[in-house]
Amino acid sequence: MSFSNTFETHVLNYVFTATSVTRPTAWYVALFTSNPAEDASGTEVSTSGTAYVRKTVAFTVSGNLATNNAAIEFPTATSSFGTVTHIGVFDASTSGNLIAYSALSASKAIATGDVFRIPAGDLDITLD
To answer: How far apart are alpha carbons 37 and 85 in whole angstroms?
Structure first.
């Protein structure tokens, strides 16, 4: 996963200045039909008539790796989500700040009745 411009600024402020940085208290996974990029400009799946909502995620950290410690399951689609190409981690269930994002290893078309799942341990965020 890559970090967003907002999060990169928070890290630099935390490490190299005395500027106070507010730590998120919860994290949410979002699905995108286009690359959110570092500026969060991509297209998130629509919440209108689809049953889509961002899902909470908790992470376990070991060394330089953070990974989801439980499966993440989105609601059953009541209409098409479109083709999901990217995921993002936000600090809010709606709006908020994009923290990190990544392309999926394979895009996935989500039709009516489908459920998008991320198994435990499959969402990895690494700092090198």
So the answer is: 12
pTM: 0.92
Predicted confidence (pLDDT) per residue in 45-83, tens digit: 999 999 999 999 999 999 999 999 999 999 999 999 999
How crowded is the C-beta side of 33, counted as CA atoms within 13 Å? 12
Helices (H), the chain: 5-16
Altogether, the residues listed in the chain come to a count of 128
- CA–CA gap between residue 42 and residue 86 (Å, rounded): 9
Helices (H), 33-93: none
Strands (E), the chain: 2-3, 27-32, 55-57, 59-62, 65-68, 72-73, 82-90, 98-110, 117-118, 124-126
**In this structure, how many other beta carbons lie within 10 angstroms of the beta carbon of residue 126?**
10
Beta bridge partners of 109: 83
